[in-house]
Amino acid sequence: MRIAICDDEPLYRQILREKIAEDSFVHNYDADISEYSDGRQLIEAVENGAAADVFFLDIQTRQGTDDGIRTGRKLRERGENGLIVYVTGFIDYVQTGYEVRAFRYLLKNQIPEKLPGVLADIRRELSDTEYTFQAGGETLRVDRRRILYLESNIRTLRLVTLENEYRFYDTLDHAEVQLGEPFLRCHRSFLVNKRMIRKYSGSQIILPGEIAIPISRSYARQVKQRLMLEMR
User: Fold this and answer.
1) Mean pLDDT score of the chain
2) Model pTM above 0.70
């Protein structure tokens, strides 16, 4: 697993590096860790060919600037699809997190107890990326990370990705079980990829391309709980 840590405080880079190394030993996976003291340094490295499966980004530097926010935007603008974990002292950036499809938020004072769970979620996310379904007599596979949403119409599903859309026979309940935790039911007819949410309000979810997905009253509380849980 290629991991980039971007934080202007050496202490927190060290804490993250040591905890990740410890976790990789316990769970038997390779962790190739790179460290950067600011977003500019990280972006320059990416432009020169550096790559990461996961970016741990400090939201605010000691100078009070939102360096991690701007860095996240630049990574997405460049087409980087690595998971973004925001490391912060404050939970004040919900909408921005949706904008760059942040995977998790990690409070600095909770790193020792919360990081193992975040790393477990990351391993699951990176290990199972394909969604398989039958359409037109063929078995098709799509990258789950590229799925925007699924829409149900009786027993037909419409699956929309960043590049294509597909129609096939299945139920939304079955697809929800297959796709698992990263996907969120917000309506009896809609299942959305949480990683793709750019904005959220009480009545709708906005996906890339300004696609608006409705949130029904019966799912509103569940949606709020699921989305807010990631901010803890």
Assistant:
1) 87
2) no
